[in-house]
Specification:
Elements: H1 7-10, H2 25-29, E1 32-36, E2 47-50, E3 61-63, E4 68-75, E5 82-92, E6 95-109, E7 116-117, E8 122-126
Antiparallel strand pairs: 1-2, 3-8, 4-5, 4-7, 5-6, 6-8
Length: about 130
């Protein structure tokens, strides 16, 4: 994680998130399906597609899955395009833990790097 040692300190002033939702189809990925699951065929993410097929989900909103700190929001080009990385603080077995969510293939980025945000905030629009 880029800047990993600084991130927990930055999140000290914020409470742990109280759960996670899906990045599309609020609530609970309604109208979407997971077309490419994490690690299947060495894929390093999940691809959420609209159930109507084709490019019907083009320009659909993409949301933060939980409260967290935006530590990367840039166009990296290539097949990734605009990406956003968010670190989330949460409780697990009585301990504070940190996990990262990653959003790629975005048409637009609607948030600013370095900001704390609540879960469910629109981050950008789908490009694929």
């Amino acid at each position: 994680m880029e800047g990993g040692s600084k991130l927990p300190k930055l999140l000290n002033n914020y409470p742990p998130c109280d759960g996670f939702d899906f990045p599309v189809g609020k609530p609970n990925a309604r109208g979407y399906y997971n077309a490419q699951k994490f690690t299947v065929n060495n894929h390093l993410g999940e691809d959420w597609n609209g159930v109507s097929g084709g490019n019907t989900d083009l320009r659909d909103p993409v949301y933060s899955t939980a409260d967290g700190m935006i530590f990367f929001a840039k166009d990296v080009g290539g097949g990734w395009g605009n990406i956003i990385r968010i670190v989330h603080k949460y409780w697990k077995n009585g301990e504070i833990k940190y996990i990262e969510s990653f959003y790629a293939h975005l048409k637009d980025i609607l948030i600013k790097e370095g900001k704390y945000l609540k879960g469910g905030i629109k981050l950008g629009l789908s490009a694929m």
